Amino acid sequence: MRRKGLASMAVQAVERATSFGPAVALSCRECGERVPLGPVFACTSCFGPLEVAYELPLGDPEGLRRRIESGPANIWRYAPLLPVPADVASRPNLRPGFTQLVRADNLARELGVTGELHVKDDSGNPTHSFKDRVVAVAVEAARAFGFTTLSCSSTGNLAGAVGAAAARAGLRSCVFIPHDLEAGKVVMAAVYGGDLVGIEGTYDDVNRFCSELIGDPLGEGWGFVNVNLRPYYGEGSKTLAYEICEQLGWRLPDQLVVPIASGSQLTKIDKGLRELIALGLVEDRPYRIFGAQAEGCSPVSRAFKDGQDVVRPVKPDTIAKSLAIGNPADGPYVLDIARRTGGAVEDVTDPEIVDAIRLLARTEGIFAETAGGVTVGVTRKLLEAGVLDPSLTTVVLNTGDGLKTLDAVAAGPSVTIRPSLGAFREAGLG
Ligand SMILES: *Cc1c(COP(=O)(O)O)cnc(C)c1O
Ligand SMILES: [Zn+2]
């Protein structure tokens, strides 16, 4: 009996080791303590957040670059750098990523940028936001841990991404959102057939509720992608950094403008860039990371401007609902990164967000959701303030699709006429 128990434990350990590719442990971002890979997110010594630690394939950058370039045109080309099994590309999943990096010369001209300006357009993902990246990695962890229900607390985009990914993977889903989200996001969260629960409260209330559910027998067997699977989930954002550099011809951009909700994406983009440098895939040069928030939910921007290390929570009130997290878990790390890289954190008002959505649509044919209005608006503001250098290579992230936040932009026909040439002539548009 005892021997059999040991043998099956060994098999489990091997399975777990191969399930997570190059990942070897979770490590505490505060005290560095290491724990085995598991569905845990907080350090037992100091309660700091855990992140995935790797044995990365160092030593053969040319070989690694060739391997990546011959991989699939989605995030799984970077499987050697992610906590996923080597055969992940052939499993049932949404295959997000490798979205377009758009050279934005028209926008550059309007903004007075003389260097290269690019928009990384993540509206091209399967559920039309960057969230498909993080969910795809979390789903693999959910499978490895034997979870049968996939869940999350969401500001909207994540709920849709989880619903769709669970459907493809053959898992049940039950997701939680604030009750007052945009119609486009509610429909997308519901259409994939999982359970959708509206909570009377803000996102921060939803998040607190989910933390309670995890500790309760009601939540047994549940993988919350952004709570107990958060260390794995976060790693999906590294692929934005990998793609941007590969699409620039294996080159670091000089400046990146990244939206902040919880701050996870921004911190993992920085992690991804540092990995590429360590792996020898890009030349080690300085880069600067700029965070973007909406004024109506700008706790990180506030702390940055006040020279604080702590982020004081706020009650969100903005049209940029996908970024409306009043108590951002990764806020202090975002401050560290902005300061270490010589970047900044800035915010824009709701009218500035709408103007920026229109500007990007008019100049580049990209219809961004409000989060894209935030990054483009902040880019404009930082250029005008002389904080962003217009002569350098800058990448601005658009993380979601304008079709999900239609109410933000009151656009309609230039004129409505009878179907006759006479009426068209009168309208003066010929
Ligand atoms: C979730 C989200 C982000 C970033 O979220 P973080 O919590 O900061 O990682 C950015 N843009 C959109 C559209 C999102 O849905
Ligand atoms: Zn710790």
TrEMBL record:
Its EC number is 4.2.3.1. This is Threonine synthase. GO terms for molecular function: L-serine ammonia-lyase activity; threonine deaminase activity; threonine synthase activity. InterPro entries: Ser/Thr_Dehydratase, Thr_synthase-like, TrpB-like_PALP, TrpB-like_PALP_sf. It is an enzyme of class 4 (lyase). Residues 97-400 form the Tryptophan synthase beta chain-like PALP domain. It comes from the Bacteria. The keyword Lyase applies. Belongs to the threonine synthase family. Keywords: Lyase, Pyridoxal phosphate. GO terms for biological process: isoleucine biosynthetic process; L-serine catabolic process; L-threonine catabolic process; threonine biosynthetic process. Gene3D superfamilies: 3.40.50.1100. It comes from Streptomyces mobaraensis. Its cofactor is pyridoxal 5'-phosphate.
